[in-house]
Amino acid sequence: MLDRILLTNDDGIDAPGLAVLEEIAGELAHEVWVVAPEHDQSGVSHAVSLHHPLRVVQYAPRRFGINGTPGDCAVMGICHLMPTPPDLVLSGVNRGGNLGMETVFSGTVGGAMTAMLVGVKAIALSQVWTDRDNVRWDTARRLAPGVIRQLLALGWNAGTCLNVNFPDCAADEVGPLTLARQGAGLLQGMVVETRTDPRGIPYHWLNFRRGPRAQGPDADTDAIAAGRIAVTPIRYDRTDEAAFIALAAKLPRL
Predict the structure, then answer these.
(1) Does residue 12 register a pLDDT over 90?
(2) Which domains does the chain possess?
(3) pTM value surpassing 0.90
(4) Number of C-beta neighbours around residue 156 at 10 A
(5) Beta-carbon-side half-sphere exposure of residue 191 (alpha carbons within 13 Å)
(6) Which residue from 66, 65, 60, 32 is spatially nearest to 47, judged by alpha carbons?
(7) Which residue from 56, 123, 151, 157 puts its CA 20 to 30 A from 235's CA?
């Protein structure tokens, strides 16, 4: 058993996935701390609040809401609210997969990566669904404790966090934990939807446009489609090696 785990998410402190994560963490640590956004922060990526103050609401011992992002929550928990840093940060369980390019926008992944940035091992956890009214929370609830124990036993380096996605299958039908690369995912762009409010004033919604794409070898989306649990090690370095090599012949280098 770990001494203490810190939990956060991007769906908000009242999200069902966070309740699932509390059950998962309860099997892994003596102390479970929750520091989560007061409201849904999906899509905020790695954002931290530099231009407005953060306010903390304590709901119970070791349970706090923050008027900020998942990254804010990770920093506040690790650097301010907890008397000593946690052994592990878990972010999620997100309602929906965080696969391919969507990991760049994910607040769930952002919370985990911010924890890693301030020196604590972190894992992002997401539950894929095909029917948003029937998310298979029990799959993550039953399988995540064993997955996390397995990953902790294997270990990973300090400059990396792990992104784990559970497939939309009953727990008894799920395949093994599978190492996967971040594939292209399903994002094909973004759209702006314009509507008119009751006063006749236009407003706008941003949304992702999704569709099938070629994924590349060992892609996370392929692992999920095969009914496996996908784990992808991710880091901040986004250098495109092929482009770097192509430009190196034309530009000076240090």
Answers:
(1) yes
(2) 2-185+214-237 (3.40.1210.10)
(3) yes
(4) 15
(5) 8
(6) 66
(7) 56
